[in-house]
Amino acid sequence: MEKAAVQQDGLLIPLIDFSKFLNGTEAQKLETAQAILKGFQTAGFIYLKNIPITPETRAHVFGTSAKLFKLSQEEKMACAWTTPQANRGYSEPGREKVSLLTEADEVEKVRAAAPDIKESFEIGRENEPGHPNQWPVEKGELVGFKDTMTKFFDDCNALQVEVMRAIAVGMGIDPGYFDSYVDVGDNTLRLLHYPAVDKKVFQINPGQVRAGEHSDYGSITLLFQDQRGGLQVKSPNGQFVDATPIEDTCVVNAGDLLMRWSNDTIKSTIHRVVEPPQAEGDVHPPRYSIAYFCNPNFKNFIEAIPGTYATEAEKKYPGINSGEYLVQRLTATY
Ligand SMILES: O=C(O)CCC(=O)C(=O)O
Ligand SMILES: [Fe+2]
């Protein structure tokens, strides 16, 4: 069987070779699909290796993301995030650069607010009526940005369709059961930048994190992290456990709507990003990650998946429209 990517405090996150689902024998396909489903049912998280997104593509997309975040604040704010319905554009860090952190009242503000130290840029499906993407002006280093990101969006979309097929195979239902629920691509590509930050910030406020604890909202999230570390997943015993980066793997986690859809047989597990301990220097270096949040088609009605309940009375939730569910959740956070 596969190795564990993470095994600590009752949390076992499997490391799964996805090429065996895509290109393996029937027996390998089934075994891989079952391992994927089991990972979602127990940890809520899996790591996939040998996915169709190449290391070269991944490096190129990370490089392009870094170029975006190097733009001036003014240029980034020209693409500002607007509404939960659109869910596209740039979100600025919760506070000013920490190099300004000299005045006592500034320090006090940090202590009081402890905002996440991160900035992000969200990209949705192209051609969604009424919700254009907030593309930055393509000049200098940013030439090709839209092309790179829309291609990556489509690559991730193709991958998530396959992961949903694996879940269906694991459940023993029609392998294409989810296809008509996930074919529109109502997903969000989120570029994340956790800027370099003075160590003092973390000393002043021991509760300071990079991204506060949360669960994701949708069906599944594909998460690409760099080698910095900091992602932590809550174990069944309530401890946060490091989900250490493994090169060229993609972390995949189930979201709240998939948990609901699966009648709570799949887990949407709480996670966060902290600053990993570091001995050298006064400054924590930056971290980059890319999350691809997948949702069932916004127009679809989501009711318990066949096989996740024996009788009507065992259905834990009423059906809900996917798009309405997501907008409700986003409205509560922004
Ligand atoms: O940056 C990361 O590694 C995780 C980000 C995350 O969990 C999120 O944006 O939902
Ligand atoms: Fe998340």
Automatic annotation (TrEMBL):
Record-linked SUPFAM superfamilies: Clavaminate synthase-like
An example molecular function term from Gene Ontology annotations: metal ion binding
Keyword Oxidoreductase belongs to the record: yes
Pfam families named in the record: 2OG-FeII_Oxy, DIOX_N
InterPro entries for this protein: DIOX_N, IPNS-like_FE2OG_OXY, IPNS-like_sf, Iron_ascorbate_oxido_reductase, Oxoglu/Fe-dep_dioxygenase_dom
Keywords assigned: Iron, Metal-binding, Oxidoreductase
Span of domain Fe2OG dioxygenase: 185-296
Any one GO BP annotation for this protein: small molecule biosynthetic process
PANTHER family xref list: 2-OXOGLUTARATE (2OG) AND FE(II)-DEPENDENT OXYGENASE SUPERFAMILY PROTEIN-RELATED
Recorded family membership: Belongs to the iron/ascorbate-dependent oxidoreductase family.
Protein name: 2OG-Fe(II) oxygenase
